[in-house]
Amino acid sequence: MTNSGVYVVEPCASANAYEIKFKDKKLNLDNIDFCDVLAKTNIVLVGKYYGYAVSFYESGRVMIKGIKGEEAPKISKKLISDLEKSKVLV
After folding, report:
1. Cα Dmax for the chain
2. pLDDT tens digits for 1-46?
3. How many CA atoms lie within 13 A of 37 on its CB side?
């Protein structure tokens, strides 16, 4: 688990996934332009990011599915950087 004070990255027990939870932040799904979008509603955007299925939730959660524990910190940091650069975090 990674805890930065702004977000937490931890394994999701109910899925083969890692979860990023942002504290006091929401996601503007309309600004996500750094992944291949597979589906989108007002609440969730599902896309492919470096080969991983990722669900972005407007509420401030991100699920990275099928990722192994040793890969999670590297991909999470890159994903968080892309979220910040694209002004997705609000």
Report:
1. 32
2. 454 567 888 888 767 889 999 999 999 999 999 999 999 999 999 9
3. 12
